[in-house]
Amino acid sequence: MVEHQLRGRGIRDEAVLAAMAAVPRDLFVPPDVLAYAYSDDALPIEAGQTISQPYMVAQMTELLEPRPEMRVLEVGTGSGYQAAVLATIGCRVVTIERHAELAAAAEARLAQLGLGDLVRIEVGDGSLGLPQEVPFEGIVVTAAAPAVPATLRAQLAEGGRLVVPVGSRDFQELLAVVRHGDDFEERRCGSCVFVPLVGAGGFDADAPRWRPWLGRLHP
Fold it and tell me: Would you call 52 a catalytic residue per the annotation?
């Protein structure tokens, strides 16, 4: 997975590659798709959500420019895989999940890997972020927003990075946003399709059903 899907397709950050090699992806997928845990695909998980394609996880992580002790907010815990990769690099992660059952399962997996001290999971509307804990040096959103949520931009530290898929329910562009004072530099980083971000800063709750290509690089 790491050599062919990640390094072979341009992921260069050695810390990201090492973390992706170290975190057992099979721990984060349901039993019925276990055979596909290391495939080049997004996979369905509980509550109608997904675990993203390995390349997409690596790309989003690399765009954050993570480092040990970096404070990162993740919006959309899902299975906990993205948080595990960040914590393996040494980031201190707060992650917000809308579905309590997903949050509980992710917490158990992270504890099993010995990463519980580096990751804290909150249940709530991730599109609002955590204004009481600002600023964050990195914010990663693992669901599609109709626009870059203003609430999340405001919670970035100076020089902080926000990575978020933005677009319609059916098709998005991955954006990397860097804060420079009151200005926000945006860079487009490719097409993708994610499940929708549901909440005040996202879409309403009538989300479409999962499609096989969700959470992956668009062809």
Answer: yes
